[in-house]
Specification:
The complex is a heterodimer of chains A (111) and B (112). Chain A is an all-beta fold and 111 residues long. Chain A is 0% helix and 60% strand. In chain A, the strands form 2 sheets. In chain A, strands 2, 4, 5, 9, 10 and 11 form a 6-stranded mixed β-sheet that branches. Chain B is an all-beta fold. Chain B contains no helices and 11 strands. Chain B is globular, with a radius of gyration of 13 Å. Classes of the chains: A mainly beta (111), B mainly beta (112). Chains A and B meet through β4, β5, β9 and β10 of A and β4, β5 and β10 of B.
Chain lengths: 111, 112
Protein backbone atom coordinates (compact mmCIF):
# COMPACT_ATOMS: atom_id res chain seq x y z
CA UNK A 1 0.00 0.00 0.00
CA UNK A 2 1.33 3.44 -0.94
CA UNK A 3 2.24 5.59 2.05
CA UNK A 4 3.08 9.28 2.47
CA UNK A 5 4.17 10.55 5.90
CA UNK A 6 4.54 14.18 6.85
CA UNK A 7 6.29 15.67 9.85
CA UNK A 8 5.82 17.46 12.09
CA UNK A 9 2.05 17.12 12.42
CA UNK A 10 1.83 20.68 13.69
CA UNK A 11 4.15 23.59 14.23
CA UNK A 12 3.88 27.02 15.85
CA UNK A 13 6.47 29.64 14.92
CA UNK A 14 6.94 33.37 15.25
CA UNK A 15 6.68 35.67 12.29
CA UNK A 16 10.05 35.94 10.59
CA UNK A 17 11.17 32.42 11.46
CA UNK A 18 12.25 29.89 8.84
CA UNK A 19 10.47 26.52 8.82
CA UNK A 20 11.17 23.18 7.18
CA UNK A 21 8.36 20.73 6.52
CA UNK A 22 9.14 17.10 5.76
CA UNK A 23 7.51 14.51 3.54
CA UNK A 24 8.66 10.92 3.13
CA UNK A 25 7.06 8.31 0.95
CA UNK A 26 6.93 4.61 0.19
CA UNK A 27 5.10 4.02 -3.06
CA UNK A 28 5.21 1.80 -6.09
CA UNK A 29 5.61 3.47 -9.44
CA UNK A 30 6.60 6.97 -8.26
CA UNK A 31 5.98 9.66 -10.86
CA UNK A 32 5.96 13.00 -9.05
CA UNK A 33 5.66 14.72 -5.67
CA UNK A 34 3.39 17.72 -5.13
CA UNK A 35 2.94 20.27 -2.36
CA UNK A 36 -0.35 22.02 -1.63
CA UNK A 37 -1.38 24.75 0.80
CA UNK A 38 -4.82 24.48 2.41
CA UNK A 39 -6.21 27.45 4.28
CA UNK A 40 -9.91 27.26 4.89
CA UNK A 41 -11.24 25.27 2.00
CA UNK A 42 -9.69 24.03 -1.23
CA UNK A 43 -6.01 23.05 -1.33
CA UNK A 44 -4.04 25.26 -3.71
CA UNK A 45 -1.15 23.93 -5.74
CA UNK A 46 2.37 25.06 -4.79
CA UNK A 47 5.00 22.85 -6.46
CA UNK A 48 5.47 19.67 -8.41
CA UNK A 49 8.82 17.90 -8.32
CA UNK A 50 9.88 15.01 -10.50
CA UNK A 51 13.67 15.11 -10.46
CA UNK A 52 16.07 14.75 -7.54
CA UNK A 53 18.19 17.66 -6.42
CA UNK A 54 16.48 20.38 -8.45
CA UNK A 55 15.07 23.09 -6.21
CA UNK A 56 11.76 24.66 -7.07
CA UNK A 57 11.31 28.17 -5.74
CA UNK A 58 8.44 30.62 -5.52
CA UNK A 59 9.07 33.74 -3.47
CA UNK A 60 9.80 32.69 0.12
CA UNK A 61 8.85 29.05 -0.53
CA UNK A 62 11.19 26.43 -1.92
CA UNK A 63 11.16 22.67 -2.20
CA UNK A 64 13.50 19.88 -3.14
CA UNK A 65 13.14 16.16 -3.79
CA UNK A 66 15.50 13.29 -2.94
CA UNK A 67 14.40 10.22 -4.89
CA UNK A 68 17.16 8.05 -3.46
CA UNK A 69 16.17 8.68 0.16
CA UNK A 70 12.46 9.02 -0.75
CA UNK A 71 11.70 12.39 0.80
CA UNK A 72 11.03 16.01 0.08
CA UNK A 73 11.24 19.18 2.12
CA UNK A 74 9.33 22.41 1.88
CA UNK A 75 11.10 25.48 3.23
CA UNK A 76 9.42 28.75 4.09
CA UNK A 77 11.68 31.67 4.96
CA UNK A 78 10.71 34.88 6.75
CA UNK A 79 7.31 33.43 7.66
CA UNK A 80 4.26 35.67 7.76
CA UNK A 81 0.88 35.18 9.42
CA UNK A 82 -0.57 34.57 5.97
CA UNK A 83 1.53 31.41 5.76
CA UNK A 84 -0.64 29.84 8.48
CA UNK A 85 -2.27 26.82 6.84
CA UNK A 86 -2.15 23.07 6.45
CA UNK A 87 0.59 22.02 4.04
CA UNK A 88 -0.16 18.80 2.19
CA UNK A 89 2.32 16.57 0.42
CA UNK A 90 1.07 14.21 -2.27
CA UNK A 91 2.75 11.60 -4.46
CA UNK A 92 1.61 10.83 -7.97
CA UNK A 93 1.69 7.19 -8.99
CA UNK A 94 0.43 4.96 -11.72
CA UNK A 95 -2.51 5.64 -13.95
CA UNK A 96 -5.13 8.38 -14.11
CA UNK A 97 -2.75 10.83 -12.44
CA UNK A 98 -3.81 9.60 -9.00
CA UNK A 99 -2.37 11.25 -5.91
CA UNK A 100 -1.75 9.75 -2.48
CA UNK A 101 -1.79 12.44 0.20
CA UNK A 102 -0.04 12.67 3.54
CA UNK A 103 -1.92 13.79 6.65
CA UNK A 104 -0.53 17.30 6.38
CA UNK A 105 1.45 19.66 8.60
CA UNK A 106 -0.54 22.38 10.34
CA UNK A 107 1.58 25.54 10.49
CA UNK A 108 0.62 28.45 12.70
CA UNK A 109 2.60 31.68 12.45
CA UNK A 110 2.16 34.05 15.40
CA UNK A 111 3.07 37.71 15.77
CA UNK B 1 -9.49 29.64 -17.82
CA UNK B 2 -10.72 26.58 -15.98
CA UNK B 3 -13.18 26.74 -13.11
CA UNK B 4 -14.52 24.03 -10.85
CA UNK B 5 -17.81 24.32 -8.98
CA UNK B 6 -19.15 22.26 -6.11
CA UNK B 7 -22.46 22.46 -4.32
CA UNK B 8 -23.82 22.68 -1.81
CA UNK B 9 -21.15 24.34 0.35
CA UNK B 10 -22.53 22.90 3.57
CA UNK B 11 -25.03 20.16 4.27
CA UNK B 12 -26.54 18.68 7.43
CA UNK B 13 -28.31 15.38 6.90
CA UNK B 14 -29.83 12.78 9.26
CA UNK B 15 -28.50 9.24 9.39
CA UNK B 16 -30.21 7.06 6.79
CA UNK B 17 -31.02 9.90 4.38
CA UNK B 18 -29.76 10.01 0.78
CA UNK B 19 -26.95 12.19 -0.50
CA UNK B 20 -26.13 13.86 -3.79
CA UNK B 21 -23.12 16.15 -4.20
CA UNK B 22 -22.38 17.69 -7.57
CA UNK B 23 -19.19 18.93 -9.17
CA UNK B 24 -18.80 20.59 -12.57
CA UNK B 25 -15.72 21.80 -14.40
CA UNK B 26 -15.64 24.58 -17.00
CA UNK B 27 -13.01 25.50 -19.52
CA UNK B 28 -11.50 22.11 -20.26
CA UNK B 29 -12.48 18.95 -22.11
CA UNK B 30 -12.20 15.32 -21.02
CA UNK B 31 -10.72 16.04 -17.60
CA UNK B 32 -9.82 13.37 -15.07
CA UNK B 33 -12.17 13.87 -12.11
CA UNK B 34 -11.71 12.90 -8.48
CA UNK B 35 -13.71 12.79 -5.24
CA UNK B 36 -11.82 13.07 -1.96
CA UNK B 37 -12.93 13.07 1.65
CA UNK B 38 -11.04 14.89 4.38
CA UNK B 39 -11.76 14.10 8.03
CA UNK B 40 -11.10 16.85 10.56
CA UNK B 41 -7.38 17.62 10.77
CA UNK B 42 -6.48 14.80 8.41
CA UNK B 43 -5.16 14.34 4.91
CA UNK B 44 -7.21 13.70 1.79
CA UNK B 45 -8.55 10.23 1.10
CA UNK B 46 -9.28 9.44 -2.54
CA UNK B 47 -12.77 7.96 -2.89
CA UNK B 48 -13.40 7.76 -6.65
CA UNK B 49 -11.79 8.84 -9.88
CA UNK B 50 -12.93 8.96 -13.47
CA UNK B 51 -11.00 9.24 -16.72
CA UNK B 52 -14.08 9.55 -18.95
CA UNK B 53 -17.87 9.53 -19.16
CA UNK B 54 -19.30 6.47 -17.43
CA UNK B 55 -15.84 5.31 -16.26
CA UNK B 56 -15.63 5.22 -12.47
CA UNK B 57 -12.97 3.62 -10.31
CA UNK B 58 -13.51 3.16 -6.59
CA UNK B 59 -10.62 3.37 -4.18
CA UNK B 60 -12.32 2.67 -0.87
CA UNK B 61 -15.25 0.26 -0.31
CA UNK B 62 -18.07 2.12 1.40
CA UNK B 63 -21.72 3.05 1.03
CA UNK B 64 -20.93 5.88 -1.41
CA UNK B 65 -21.10 5.75 -5.19
CA UNK B 66 -20.08 8.10 -7.98
CA UNK B 67 -21.34 8.78 -11.48
CA UNK B 68 -20.18 10.83 -14.42
CA UNK B 69 -23.21 11.46 -16.65
CA UNK B 70 -21.49 14.19 -18.70
CA UNK B 71 -17.88 14.97 -19.60
CA UNK B 72 -17.48 17.69 -17.02
CA UNK B 73 -19.95 16.59 -14.35
CA UNK B 74 -19.15 14.30 -11.43
CA UNK B 75 -21.70 13.27 -8.81
CA UNK B 76 -21.18 11.64 -5.43
CA UNK B 77 -24.17 9.79 -4.00
CA UNK B 78 -25.34 7.65 -1.15
CA UNK B 79 -28.64 5.87 -0.60
CA UNK B 80 -28.35 5.88 3.20
CA UNK B 81 -25.86 8.06 5.06
CA UNK B 82 -23.91 6.83 8.07
CA UNK B 83 -22.47 8.97 10.88
CA UNK B 84 -19.01 8.04 9.60
CA UNK B 85 -19.77 9.76 6.28
CA UNK B 86 -19.37 13.17 7.92
CA UNK B 87 -16.44 15.13 6.55
CA UNK B 88 -15.23 17.63 4.01
CA UNK B 89 -15.75 16.42 0.44
CA UNK B 90 -13.55 17.80 -2.29
CA UNK B 91 -13.82 17.41 -6.03
CA UNK B 92 -10.73 17.88 -8.19
CA UNK B 93 -9.72 17.72 -11.84
CA UNK B 94 -6.58 17.13 -13.85
CA UNK B 95 -5.79 16.80 -17.53
CA UNK B 96 -4.25 13.85 -19.32
CA UNK B 97 -1.09 12.48 -17.73
CA UNK B 98 -0.41 15.61 -15.67
CA UNK B 99 -0.43 15.07 -11.91
CA UNK B 100 -1.39 18.61 -10.93
CA UNK B 101 -4.90 18.47 -9.58
CA UNK B 102 -7.08 21.52 -8.99
CA UNK B 103 -9.69 21.49 -6.30
CA UNK B 104 -13.19 22.81 -5.92
CA UNK B 105 -14.32 24.76 -2.83
CA UNK B 106 -15.61 21.63 -1.10
CA UNK B 107 -18.78 20.53 0.69
CA UNK B 108 -18.83 20.19 4.45
CA UNK B 109 -21.21 17.32 5.30
CA UNK B 110 -22.44 16.67 8.81
CA UNK B 111 -24.49 13.54 9.39
CA UNK B 112 -26.54 13.74 12.58
Amino acid sequence: EDKVVQSPLSLVVHEGDTVTLNCSYEVTNFRSLLWYKQEKKAPTFLFMLTSSGIEKKSGRLSSILDKKELFSILNITATQTGDSAIYLCAVGTGTASKLTFGTGTRLQVTL
Amino acid sequence: SQTIHQWPATLVQPVGSPLSLECTVEGTSNPNLYWYRQAAGRGLQLLFYSVGIGQISSEVPQNLSASRPQDRQFILSSKKLLLSDSGFYLCAWSVGQYYEQYFGPGTRLTVT
